[in-house]
Design goal:
The protein is of the alpha+beta class and about 290 residues long. It has 3 helices and 12 strands; from the N terminus they run ααββββββββββββα. It is about 45% helix and about 25% strand. A hairpin with a 4-residue loop joins β3 and β4.
Length: about 290
């Protein structure tokens, strides 16, 4: 269907119809004028009567002839308006589709922005230098829990640097390249982190189990543990800085269980954007 009827064509068509109507009217007027001249020569009284009838007839005739012309003209303009509205509606639909795509993109960027803000606030709380990164790959294996991120030695990253999300530590750097690094997650069976309880200050070692839980080892016997108490990195050994949240102890989780289980950092398995804390133990001693 054409997008719009040519307005020039409408004008020409209307003008043509009007010219035809005027032509017919003019012809009728000429014929009646000749008759008037003939009648005027015969009888002046008859001429007056004929003029009055002629005036009534011609005015009525011209009115009747003008109505179809005006109706056709109005009809064409209305059709053109309908075609224009249809075209405008199609354009608005296309524009709406485009806006929907931009809306989806904006929402995606907004979500990423919020996640990066949380990471920024988390790193500020640690009072450490950091570099933001994005997860490239996730091993997802049964025996190896590692991810690859897009920062490396060129960004100041070192082996052993802790990797955190907006809640706490989720792993540490174990291999490094110039522009990428491999992160061993806290849930990996090879992960062992010296920790202490945030309030009671009891010390222990937090190890991975290749599952959704961590296990606490080398904790003194007969100690009272508070519910929902965080476990923090102790900094012993000099590899990790002190005071990074790494897990949460739950009484409900440890009912009738000999081993002490600990919840890892929130959303440890939903990894997208992460921060690497640029920690250097030797520089801290200076």
């Amino acid at each position: 269907m054409p997008k719009s009827i040519n307005k020039t064509y409408l004008v020409k068509l209307t003008t043509y119809a009007k010219e035809k109507a005027h032509g017919i009217g003019t012809t009728i007027l000429i014929v009646f004028s000749v008759l008037l001249l003939l009648i005027g020569k015969v009888n002046e009284t008859s001429l007056s009567i004929f003029k009055s009838y002629f005036l009534d007839i011609t005015s009525g005739l011209l009115t009747i002839l003008g109505k179809p012309v005006n109706s056709v003209s109005d009809g064409f303009y209305k059709i053109n308006d309908l075609v224009y509205l249809y075209t405008q509606n199609q354009d608005l639909r296309e524009e709406n589709k485009s806006l929907s795509k931009w809306k989806d993109l904006a929402l995606e960027l907004l979500a990423e922005n919020e996640e990066l803000k949380k990471l920024l606030n988390s790193s500020k709380e640690q009072n450490q230098k950091f570099v933001s990164s994005k997860v490239i790959t996730n091993s997802g294996g049964s025996y190896v829990k590692t991810i690859t991120i897009n920062v490396g030695s060129n960004d100041g990253v070192r082996v052993g640097n802790p990797v955190i999300n907006n809640w706490g530590m989720i792993g540490r750097i174990v291999e490094i390249g110039r522009n990428s690094s491999r992160v061993l997650l806290t849930t990996d069976i090879n992960s062992q982190i010296p920790v202490y309880f945030e309030n009671s200050l009891h010390k222990a070692i937090l190890v991975g189990k290749n599952s959704d839980l961590l296990e606490l080892k080398f904790l003194k016997k007969r100690v009272y543990l508070q519910d929902d108490e965080r476990l923090m990195t102790s900094g012993e050994g000099g590899i990790l800085p002190r005071g990074i949240p790494v897990g949460l102890y739950s009484v409900e989780l440890n009912k009738n269980i000999e081993k002490i289980n600990v919840l890892p950092a929130k959303d440890w398995d939903k990894l997208s954007f992460l921060n690497v804390i640029l920690y250097n133990y030797k520089e801290e001693l200076k």
